[in-house]
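Summary of Year 1 activities. Much of the first year was spent building the evaluation harness for sequence design. The harness presents a backbone, in tokenized form, and records the residue chosen at every position. We chose the following record to illustrate the format because it has been used consistently in internal testing since the harness was completed.
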């Protein structure tokens, strides 16, 4: 352990980690009840994030009523709380306990691609059960994920450990596309969360649900340079099975044929499909539509 981690400035963080460790021992029903309660409280108390969620839903689903958007927003906060408390299991739970919370649908698309000599890029977005998708893939066949290091070194180290403890490896986004290219050319696969709005300079504008979104076309560019297929995927919590089901869709067809804007549209389409099926589990707390072609700030109206 780095000596820096035990300095007094991090004692509060370690107290929180100890509580998180206790959460990992709770039975599933208790974890979920606690997480959803935390989510309901956050909906009431965190006005800033609540307003971002409602602004996103208004832009993404303009045909919905205000009541429908609020209901989805409330449910989203509950699922965020559940995902937060459940992630304690990924930090501290045994391989057996973690595997019992997971299932996978569509792995045959990966096998078909690799059997044909193709490299693979998993293309996903931010979901309330995001960490469980990475765990499911890592327990099946470890690969490389792209991540953003956190400012708190203790939390960063613990999250890094949770994401790599069963064989997955990580590269920092700051290392750039060259690192991703090297990994793909070695025959490894990449797991990329590519739905963040990183500004017009790094994006193409493309339709996403009922809105226009600054979209990263990086997965398409990497695929073109490495003879890779892009497999959309999402970890969706199944209320009936009480598991996080990682759904892998067939490869995206047509990438590289209609320019960067066309690629961005193709990358968005499967995510639109997955979001529409379970909208409450998509990460609406992010400023997904921050960059607009006309410079509009859809979040300013709500403070």
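For this record, the design step produced the sequence shown next.
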């Amino acid at each position: 352990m780095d000596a820096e981690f035990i300095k007094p400035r991090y004692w509060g963080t370690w107290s929180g980690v100890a509580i998180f460790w206790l959460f990992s021992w709770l039975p599933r029903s208790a974890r979920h009840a606690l997480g959803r309660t935390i989510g309901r409280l956050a909906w009431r108390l965190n006005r800033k994030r609540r307003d971002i969620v409602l602004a996103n839903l208004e832009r993404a689903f303009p045909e919905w009523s205000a009541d429908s958007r609020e209901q989805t927003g409330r449910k989203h906060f509950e699922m965020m709380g559940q995902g937060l408390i459940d992630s304690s299991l990924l930090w501290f739970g045994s391989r057996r306990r973690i595997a019992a919370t997971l299932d996978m649908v569509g792995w045959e698309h990966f096998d078909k691609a690799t059997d044909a000599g193709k490299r693979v890029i998993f293309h996903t977005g931010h979901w309330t059960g995001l960490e469980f998708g990475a765990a499911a893939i890592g327990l099946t066949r470890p690969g490389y994920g792209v991540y953003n290091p956190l400012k708190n070194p203790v939390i960063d180290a613990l999250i890094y450990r949770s994401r790599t403890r069963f064989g997955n490896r990580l590269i920092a986004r700051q290392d750039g596309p060259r690192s991703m290219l090297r990994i793909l050319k070695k025959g490894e696969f990449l797991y990329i969360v590519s739905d963040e709005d990183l500004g017009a300079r790094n994006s193409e504008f493309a339709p996403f649900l009922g809105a226009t979104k600054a979209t990263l076309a990086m997965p398409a560019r990497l695929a073109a340079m490495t003879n890779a297929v892009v497999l959309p995927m999402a970890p969706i919590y199944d209320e009936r099975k009480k598991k996080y089901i990682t759904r892998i869709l067939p490869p995206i067809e047509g990438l590289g044929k209609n320019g960067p804007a066309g690629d961005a549209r193709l990358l968005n389409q499967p995510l639109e499909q997955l979001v529409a099926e379970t909208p409450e589990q998509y990460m609406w707390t992010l400023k997904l539509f921050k960059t607009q072609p006309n410079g509009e700030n859809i979040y300013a109206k709500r403070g």
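The chain has one domain: 3-295. Quantitative recovery figures across the full test set are reported in Table 2.
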